[in-house]
Amino acid sequence: MKPNANSTNYYAILDSDNYGILDSGATDIYLKESAPIRAINYNHVPIRVTIPNGKSMISSASATLPIPQLPKEALSGYIIPGLNKSLISVTKLCAAGCNVLFSDDKCIVTFNGNEVWQGKKHDKNGLWYVPLLPDTSPTNYILQREDRYFAGGIHQSTTMEETVKFLHQCLFSPTVDTLCKAIDNGQLIGFPHITSKLVRKYLPESTATAKGHLNRTRKGLRSTTKERIKSTREQSSDFNPTKEDIGEVQLFIGATIGEQKTGTVYTDQTGNFPVRSFQGNRCQFVAYDYRSNAILVRALKDQTDASLLAAFEDVYAYLTDRGFKPKLNVMDNQCSKTIQKFIESNKANIQLVNPDDHRVNAAERAIQTWKNHWIAGLGTLDPNCPLQLWCQFIEQGQDTLNMLRTSRVNPKLSAYAILDGQFDYDRTPLAPVGTKALVFLDPKKQTTWQSHAVDAWYVGPAKKHYRCYKFYIPETKGYRIANTAKFYPAHCKTPTIEPGDTIRLAAQDLIAAIKQNTKRIPISLHHKHTKALRKLANIFAETAGKTDHTLPRVEQPVPRVTNSPTTSTEPTAPSTIKQTRFVHQRVTRSNTPPPAMPTIHEENKQSLARAKRRERRAQPVEPPPVQKKKTVHEYQQT
């Protein structure tokens, strides 16, 4: 029988302290401080509870539910300061021998064949509420709220799923196994709040990862006529090689890993990229350093001697400055005299690979690894992002790839850490490349009615600046380094944190510090001191509990982890390339080559404009030539 809408018993707002929520995702019973509980024990062993948004809460005491019909194993729980709703674990009820039956409008808990507990389903938020008092009949009340989907005001707070997804796309969408191995090895300690357990739990299936790393199924894995062939460990040894004592530096440029010799360098070039960049680059130069296990990539305009020589000089200078000067360079048979002369001038030997023999040159395997990583990273581009910016994405792609690879010098360090030191995300923040953004415009540079931000595209980190990003500004066709921007990722959400979250976390840290210090003090405190410290902890807990927008559970019928895979794009697909604007350096009636695009800093843009105006004003203006008047005799002669 449906309750009458005018009935006070059914439609009165129920006191939330007397009711709890049946939660199938909770591992234990977590209670509010004001819930009707008994047998409170403050001398318990504190536990740390992780809530869906990734934050942690610490228990203040253990307690027991006052429901005698339930078995004793299902009555014990923990008091969590700051908890907005008491959570009753379905897992714990079933482990104690109870059966929980959910229907369309109610839930029933049975024990030994008898009904011992009954709850009611909220007709608006879809959650099941059960009474926490033995004399409260669940059929006399129905929860009513003004809001249909009560989210607790967490419209800007971040869930762990969103954070993990964002960081995964910042790292160019690597495979889960590769990412978890790098995390467990301590190669990504500079990234906040990311563990292999959280990655495996919250990271949904990524279509961008499959587009870059999906390979053909190997033969013989499920053979019915012969023994199963063991899976190759080529990829594992490529990302996580064994430690070796190498005296000299080995550099490979463009080949697969074969037998390695001490002090070797391998080089090669990739095929032309489908789109010419704004800077006129068409292909990529890949170098593999064997000792650090690092892959270095540079953009090339063409494969002429001048472009290749500039790439060789850059790579050699980069490795030499970091103590990895090459001694032997292994490369393809096509090597010009200019490149040979440069390598010999750096006191390095040259070894040319036989034609069509790709087993000796280790850069071929490096190219395959780089292309897989590169294609997966391009899969998260915004559909409207200009693909001509691809050469600006190389720096972040190279750095993130080397962060996932261990070094042969020290297997506990990544290839990036060996060359450039440990990466710090708080100092050099990242975002998915090709993300649409709004860059803040300084008020001194704004006109009267101009907007406060300009449209931009994120192209990479500003490693020489503190907490800054590098953007491409379509309006000026230039690059700008800024520290204040708003990102709009196309395939994930930007992690944010609310001020209330910060207050609650600080209060929880103070509570934990007070409780731990009172237990670690070797001398016995006076009763009034202990009481004062406990009162102080309760004040912090009450303050943290008043942040309504940081509820421990979002009361929406939304699953904790989204099972659907993430979205992605195909910027290098032939159909997409046909629609991409062709960029070249020739002046025609329908094409004007893009001008030189220097990097403009926020603080220097105004000074540069003023300097140009001063130069124009300083140039002397020549008066027009004075025409001499002709006489009558000269006029008659003409």
Structure description:
27% of the residues lie in helices and 18% in strands. The protein is of the alpha+beta class. Helix 9 links the parallel strand 17 (326-331) and strand 18. Helix 4 runs antiparallel to helix 5, helix 6 (207-213) packs antiparallel against helix 10 and helix 10 (363-378) crosses helix 11 (394-403). The chain is extended, with a radius of gyration of 33 Å. The chain starts with 7 loop residues before the first helix and ends with a helix.
Can you give keywords for this protein?
638 residues; alpha+beta; six-stranded mixed beta sheet; 17 helices; 18% strand; disordered N terminus
List the helices and strands and how they pair.
Blueprint: H1 8-11, E1 19-23, E2 30-31, E3 38-41, E4 48-50, E5 56-58, E6 61-64, E7 76-79, E8 86-89, H2 90-95, E9 98-102, E10 106-111, E11 114-121, E12 128-131, H3 160-170, H4 176-184, H5 196-202, H6 207-213, H7 234-239, E13 249-252, E14 265-269, E15 283-289, E16 294-300, H8 305-321, E17 326-331, H9 337-345, E18 349-352, H10 363-378, H11 394-403, H12 415-420, E19 436-440, E20 453-461, E21 469-473, E22 478-482, E23 485-488, H13 499-520, H14 527-545, H15 574-578, E24 599-601, H16 605-618, H17 632-637
Parallel strand pairs: 1-8, 2-7, 13-17, 14-17, 17-18, 22-24
Antiparallel strand pairs: 1-12, 3-6, 4-5, 6-7, 9-10, 10-11, 11-12, 13-15, 14-15, 15-16, 19-20, 19-23, 20-21, 21-22
Helix pairs in contact: 4-5, 6-10, 10-11, 13-14
